[in-house]
Amino acid sequence: MLAEAIGSYFTGTAVGTHSSQTLQDTSPDGFDGIDAAEVTNKWLRMITTSDSAAPVGEFRLTSSVATTTLTVDTVYSAVINDTDTYELLPYRPDYMKA
After folding, report:
1. What CA–CA distance (Å, rounded) separates 26 from 38?
2. What residues contact residue 85 under an 8 Å CB cut-off, 6+ apart?
3. Which regions of the chain does DSSP assign to beta strands (E)?
4. 11 near 45, Cβ under 8 Å?
5. Residue 35 burial (CB < 10 Å; 0-12/13-18/19+)?
6. Distance CA 14, CA 77 (A)
7. Is the distance from CB of 11 to CB of 86 less than 8 angstroms?
8. Residue 55 DSSP class
9. Which of 9, 32, 44, 67 could bridge to 3 as Cys pair (CB 3.0-4.6 Å)?
10. Which of 34, 98, 33 has the alpha carbon at shortest distance from 71?
11. Cis bond leading into 93, ω under 30°?
12. What pTM was estimated for this model as a whole?
């Protein structure tokens, strides 16, 4: 994927406390407050969930980051849980369909 090749693509696993509007990633490879400009106004898409149900495939625009927690502008249809995987993209995912 071009976005990954140029360094504007990030995948991770939710670790910590979450809600339907926040995702926390406390892993060493996660984001932190220093990366605020790089992770706000990006698209957060849920790839997998612990129960293979919602919010798989849903994406939201990130509105802020505080230390290890991302907040999105609109709630997901379900709470994000530990081990749910996500990707952070510079573009809206549905615009890139083939």
Report:
1. 17
2. 11, 12, 13, 14, 46, 47, 48
3. 10-13, 22-24, 43-48, 59-66, 69-72, 85-89
4. no
5. middle
6. 16
7. yes
8. T
9. 9
10. 33
11. no
12. 0.84
pLDDT tens for each residue of the chain, 98 residues long: 555 565 557 888 998 888 999 999 887 766 665 567 778 899 999 999 989 999 999 999 999 888 888 999 999 999 999 999 999 888 888 765 55
Give CA–CA dist 55/73, Å, rounded.
Answer: 15
Q: Residue 19's closest CA among 57, 67, 61, 74?
A: 74
Give the C-alpha separation, 52 to 41, whole Å.
Answer: 26
CA–CA gap between residue 18 and residue 9 (Å, rounded): 22
First to last CA, the chain: 13
